[in-house]
Automatic annotation (TrEMBL):
Name of one Pfam family that matches: TMEM135_C_rich
Name by which UniProt lists this protein: Transmembrane protein 135 N-terminal domain-containing protein
UniProt KW keywords: Membrane, Transmembrane, Transmembrane helix
Topology class, membrane: Multi-pass membrane protein
């Protein structure tokens, strides 16, 4: 009796892992938010079940992230197998030679093309969100001007525009994330492949090459943090809402102080001139127990740092220490539960202690980030800045209209050096896409969507091909470990 042939399902395991991880990534935060509001909002059991069902069901739609993740992984696992089998069959049919093996370079090209095609299709799925398109169209319609209400003197009317733009940009954050990772891989690949050349920097100047390797990730983070913090102060609409709220919560600053700095930059708050801003800042000084004249730009030049301290202390150093302590406690409330969850399986007391140490170190990094930002602002506007530059050259108005904030933005990011070197890369490439998103338009005309689609597909193809070639180390950090575990068959 012949044995029943078994279907090999191993190639499908990476797809299932990708779908499951994508589903948890999308659904998990929504479930947590639902559980938080379960006892606060008065809803019937039927309403709660309907909301829960909607949360669980929405992520299973074909145009959601789990399906796109599975499709991308299929392009790196299943599709190359089919393509190789088809190509080998064609070569056998043409040459009648058995056992034809494809070269390594051809295999890599097949992997890249298959990954590119699957990522291209996945991008199309993610952008099939009609609700998002309708939302953008509605906001566009509300902001448009009804030309029928205007009549020219000669009763001649301009024809309506022939093209009504549709909007895209739903996946811009995802695209920038994979682009930054692909760029990192490309730089590492070029560096590695040219290492044997006599003109390589490691042969000409080993000390400089070692310095560049160690400072690359901190420099990327410092530059990205500076762009993000500048945007948070002066262009908060360029940041995602959730990210903006998180920064505001970590900064823990009186909104009136932020408004003062924005008005100073816009020219509404001017030292030596009565522009009607004295009551605004005077009310803040009164609430802090400070003299109201501190907020009058015609009487007090510049605004004392005590106002910037929000009533904490008259000393800039004491204020910085206070900021560090408050931010450290805030960060520990976030990092300790995460470390506990990560080590639930381990019953070793040493693992628990290591988790607490890791949480304390990460919290110290975040606390130092916040404290150094505020201290750099004070140093620039009243302590160190006036000693380096005369008030005739760099006036108090110039410091408070942007230079003091710029000093804080440039200084705070270097606290990444407090983190472990193995963590710096992950943190740097977490914030780099968000910094790019503040520079690039978040919403653009949909007829140009093919540009983003090409960048997305090329970046994903490079990442997946690098992993399948066995160069896992080039896909550094958490991303490499996650993708490596998903693609394992």
């Amino acid at each position: 009796m012949e044995a029943t042939p078994r279907v090999d399902l191993r190639p499908l395991k990476p797809l299932l892992r990708a779908y499951a991880l994508g589903y948890l990534t999308v659904t998990g935060p929504r479930l947590l938010d639902f559980l938080k509001t379960l006892g606060k909002k008065h809803r019937s059991a039927q309403e709660n079940l309907a909301i829960l069902y909607n949360i669980l069901k929405t992520s299973t739609q074909v145009n959601r992230f789990p399906a796109a993740a599975a499709l991308i992984v299929a392009g790196a696992t299943v599709l190359p197998r089919l393509a190789r089998s088809l190509l080998q069959w064609l070569l056998f049919a043409l040459s009648k030679t058995k056992g034809i093996r494809l070269s390594g370079n051809l295999n890599h090209r097949i992997h890249f093309v298959c990954s590119f095609l699957s990522a291209w299709l996945a991008f199309g799925l993610l952008n099939r969100d009609e609700a998002w398109v309708r939302k953008r169209a509605k906001s566009r319609t509300a902001a448009s001007v009804d030309m029928s209400n205007f009549e020219s003197p000669n009763q001649h009317h301009l024809p309506p525009p022939s093209y009504h733009p549709h909007y895209a940009g739903k996946t811009i954050d995802f695209t920038l994330f994979v682009f930054c990772r692909a760029l990192d891989i490309a730089v590492i690949t070029v560096w590695t492949r040219t290492r044997s050349k006599p003109w390589h920097l490691e042969h000409r100047s080993p000390t400089l090459a070692n310095f560049l390797r160690k400072s690359a990730d901190p420099s990327i983070f410092a530059a990205s943090a500076a762009i993000i913090m500048w945007s948070w102060f002066y262009s908060p609409e360029r940041l995602p809402r959730a990210y903006n709220r998180w920064i505001s919560k970590a900064a823990d600053v009186d909104g009136r102080l932020i408004e003062l700095l924005r008005r100073a930059r816009q020219g509404d708050f001017v030292y030596g001139q009565d522009t009607g801003q004295a009551p605004f800042l005077g009310g803040m000084c009164r609430d802090l127990g400070l003299p109201e004249e501190y907020g009058d730009p015609t009487k007090t030049i510049p605004v004392p740092c005590e106002v910037y301290h929000c009533g904490t202390s008259t000393s800039c150093e004491v204020h910085a220490i206070s900021r560090f302590w408050r931010s450290w406690k805030f960060a520990m409330e976030i990092y300790v539960p995460l470390q506990v969850l990560a080590r639930l399986r381990s019953r070793n007391s040493k693992a628990a202690l290591d988790g607490l140490k890791s949480a304390a170190r990460s919290s110290s990094f975040l606390a130092a980030f916040v404290a150094l930002f505020y201290y750099a602002v004070c140093l620039a506007r009243t302590r160190l800045g006036p000693r380096l530059f005369s008030y005739k050259t760099v006036t108090a108005q110039m410091w408070d209209s942007g230079l003091c904030v710029l000093a804080g933005c440039l200084a705070c990011g270097w606290t990444i050096l407090l983190e472990r070197p193995s963590r710096r890369q992950d943190i740097a490439f977490f914030v780099a896409p968000r910094a790019l998103a503040t520079i690039l338009p978040r919403v653009y005309d949909k007829r140009y969507i093919y540009r983003e689609q090409a960048v997305f597909a090329s970046s994903v193809a490079l990442i997946m091909t690098t992993l399948r070639m066995g160069n896992d180390r080039r896909v550094r950090g958490v991303l490499g470990r996650i993708l490596g575990s998903i693609l394992k068959e």
